[in-house]
Write a structure and sequence with these properties.
By secondary structure, the chain is mainly α. The protein has one domain. Helix content is 63%, strand content 0%. The chain has seven helices and no strands. Helix 1 runs antiparallel to helix 4 and helix 1 packs antiparallel against helix 6. The N and C termini lie far apart (46 Å).
Length: 176
């Protein structure tokens, strides 16, 4: 390297990549599979949370949750009475949310671009909501509260925003 010239710096942004060639026979990329599976896991985690609220967690599982939080305090048991909703309404809303997430997870695995965009928007809203509630209200983000869903939302957003996932979801679109 020449001592009189400063070293060449790397740009702080990625250059625009050329658009992917349209290929209807494109194989499903790992990012799409990961995004679809993570949405299905998010649906499953919501169902497990709902079952825990309806039926209560066994003491050994609450002890594990306390250990996972790092404070070794066994969390209080949340019940349906704490929500102030009739059990039928709670189960109905939870069932609808579960079915919608399962449908979107399957659509993602099939390669639906509309489902990919909607899931990314919902994940972004969920992440921003968790941040705002932490910032303004002081809501804690722990294993017992929103840590699992927040982590899954971040991973879903990362997986589905990849170039491979976008190219796969748009593989059948005609471009001019």
């Amino acid at each position: 390297m020449n001592a009189s010239r400063p070293p060449r710096k790397r740009a702080a942004f990625e250059p625009l990549a050329p658009p992917e060639e349209r290929n209807p026979r494109m194989r499903r990329p790992a990012a799409t599979v990961a995004g679809g599976v993570l949405v299905l896991l998010r649906a499953l985690s919501g169902a497990v949370w709902g079952a825990a609220v309806l039926f209560g967690l066994p003491p050994w599982l609450r002890a594990i949750a306390g250990f996972a939080n790092g404070d070794n305090i066994i969390p209080a048991e949340d019940t349906i009475d704490d929500l102030g909703l009739p059990p039928e309404v709670f189960v109905g809303v939870l069932g609808v949310v579960f079915l919608v997430q399962v449908v979107f997870g399957i659509l993602l695995l099939w390669g639906s671009n509309a489902a990919r965009v909607i899931v990314m928007i919902v994940s972004t809203i969920s992440i921003v909501t968790a941040f705002v509630s932490w910032w303004e209200v002081g809501a804690e983000i722990t294993v017992a509260t929103t840590l699992v869903t927040l982590a899954l939302d971040i991973l879903v957003l990362l997986a589905l925003s990849s170039r491979d996932a976008a190219a796969f979801a748009r593989r059948n679109e005609k471009r001019d």
